[in-house]
Specification:
Blueprint: E1 2-3, H1 9-18, H2 23-41, E2 44-47, H3 49-64, E3 76-80, H4 107-114, E4 118-123, H5 157-164, E5 170-175, H6 181-187, E6 190-193, E7 213-218, H7 221-232, E8 262-265, H8 277-292, E9 296-299, H9 308-324, H10 342-353, H11 356-368, H12 374-395, E10 401-405, H13 420-424, H14 431-436, E11 439-447, E12 454-461, H15 466-480, E13 496-497
Parallel strand pairs: 3-4, 3-5, 8-9, 8-10
Antiparallel strand pairs: 1-13, 2-4, 5-7, 6-7, 6-11, 10-12, 11-12
Helix pairs in contact: 2-3, 4-7, 7-15, 8-15, 9-11, 9-12
Length: 498
């Protein structure tokens, strides 16, 4: 018997293709693993066994007919609950959309399915992706598999936790200011935010339209690369005006050497407020790992990076206010009854349907876009965006990738951070990439020496250099030896393959 969680997505796809096991067997093993582990981790908002088995049988039928199988044939996947998938609810972890049935399937999800992936459910998140801990979900919290009294990060905390707990090998998340890379760091998995426009956002409920990007979580860099191959297959999506062609194979050069390549680092960043000694140690290990493989370390500067958080919390809430104005309780979503006027119904529906963080960000956005305030803050934030973009452009003239932390600390306890401003600082090392649109990946580096919790490094690349970014990520993973690691309390619990 083989424990389901010891297999990578690449191994599952190969095993299904050569008949070692069927997609249906793998789907049942994944569903067994979820059933055995979910009471402790609570990563899912909805598990879809009938849908999973339906898709698995289609993969098995295709193999029996001699058809060519996709790169994710038979691989169980789960998607963040802000992505539409026909046959499921898409709630965004909010009472506002508690009973909303997906009318269609998002392009990113459809491309996984087209590649043979088997969807097993929808994962928990911070409400409408507003948060860094998955504590703002309207339904339940998700626990970090490495310590269930700690947060998994956010807003894609359910997606990160499901992979770390061995429930599925690949999940999708969305990243507006760090919502893939930060939870990946806290849960000890690989998390990739591709370049803005690399992956279609059609069918994904919008938070910040100029910031959002969809990307994969996985336990290996190779699996993340496989997921990217599926996500970009078919080229530009005409249903998303920001979508671009990415005609590359993300696996082909994954194991290329990094000897002679240049890795940029920012010395002053290691003195940033709130950065823990464990994360500093992890950065030192990452630098040593690249040096051991012949890469050159280069000092760089990003002089306006300190302004990224301020700019993000102007642009993000402004775009969130605009995007969430559609949830008025009239066409769909939570609807307050027994109201005398339409205005009263809309006001009460929004007041009762949204949680506190969702309301906080929308009210901030409304203020920032109001007359007399817009020019003072929003216009200035866009100017800062230009300066940060120029900083990265200059930095990449001197290096191929940039090494920096993904999170300033390891996973914190539930309720430990109650001040919203302090919570926002969880994304201090990630938001600048969303502002400029570059790709970034969080790579596990083992466990912290004091906490015993996962620590990670973040690698940042120029726009549309995500294939090369994954080559560096694979080099770091190879040296660190952190491949396909499942949180120990969950490893081997349920989910057996013959």
């Amino acid at each position: 018997m083989t424990s389901f969680d010891t297999l990578t997505a690449a191994q599952i796809a190969a095993g299904v293709a050569d008949g070692t096991f069927s997609a249906t067997e793998v789907a049942r093993a994944a569903l067994d693993a979820i059933q055995a582990r979910e009471s402790s981790v609570q990563a899912f908002l909805q598990v879809t066994p009938e849908l999973a088995l339906e898709h698995a049988r289609k993969v098995d039928a295709a193999r029996a007919a001699g058809e060519k199988l996709g790169c994710l044939a038979g691989v169980p996947v789960a998607v963040k609950d802000n992505m539409n998938l026909a046959g499921t609810r898409t709630t965004c972890a909010s009472l506002m959309l508690e009973n909303y049935e997906s009318p269609y399937t998002a392009t990113c999800v459809q491309r996984l399915v087209d590649a043979g992936a088997v969807p097993v459910g929808k994962t928990n998140m911070d409400e409408f992706a507003f948060g860094s801990s998955t504590e703002s979900s309207a339904f339940h919290r998700t626990n970090n598999p490495w310590d269930t009294e700690r947060v998994p990060g956010g807003s894609s905390g359910g997606s990160a936790a499901a992979v770390a707990a061995g429930e599925v090998p690949i999940t999708l998340g969305s990243d507006t200011g760090g919502s893939i890379r930060q939870p990946a760091s806290l849960c000890g998995v690989v998390g990739l935010k591709p370049t803005y426009g690399a992956v279609s956002r059609y069918g994904v409920v919008a938070f910040g339209s100029s910031l959002d990007q969809v990307g994969p979580f996985a336990r290996t860099v190779e699996d993340a690369a496989l997921a990217m191959n599926a996500l970009v297959a078919g080229g530009r999506d005409p249903l998303d005006s920001t979508s671009q062609d990415c005609p590359v194979d993300f696996v082909e050069h994954l194991n290329d050497p990094v000897e002679g390549m240049r890795v940029g680092y920012i010395p002053g960043l290691m003195e940033a407020e709130g950065l823990t000694p464990e994360v500093r140690e992890a950065m030192a290990r990452a630098k040593a790992a690249f040096e051991a493989q012949g890469a050159e370390l280069v000092e760089i500067e990003l002089p306006h990076m300190d302004a990224a958080i301020a700019a993000y919390y102007v642009i993000g809430p402004a775009e969130a206010f605009s995007n969430l104005a559609r949830f008025d309780g009239v066409r769909y979503g939570y609807q307050e009854k027994d109201c005398s006027t339409l205005a009263e119904q809309s006001a009460l529906s929004r007041a009762h349907g949204f949680g506190s963080e969702a309301k906080r960000r929308q009210m901030l956005g409304a203020y920032l876009l109001s007359s007399g305030v817009y020019d003072q803050y929003y216009f200035a934030a866009q100017q800062v965006r230009t300066l940060i973009t120029r900083d990265y452009t200059r930095a990449f003239e001197r290096c191929d990738v940039i090494l920096m932390p993904a999170s300033p600390r390891t996973a914190f306890r539930f309720g430990e951070i109650s001040d919203p401003t302090q919570m926002y600082l969880s994304d201090v090392f990630t938001v600048s990439l969303n502002i400029v649109g570059n790709g970034g990946v969080s790579v596990p580096l083992g466990l912290g020496s004091e906490s015993g919790l996962p620590v990670s490094a973040q690698l940042v690349g120029p726009a549309f250099s995500d294939r090369r970014l994954l080559t560096f990520a694979r080099a770091l993973e190879r040296e660190a030896g952190t491949v396909n690691v499942v949180a120990p309390d969950f490893a081997g619990k349920g989910g057996e393959l013959a």
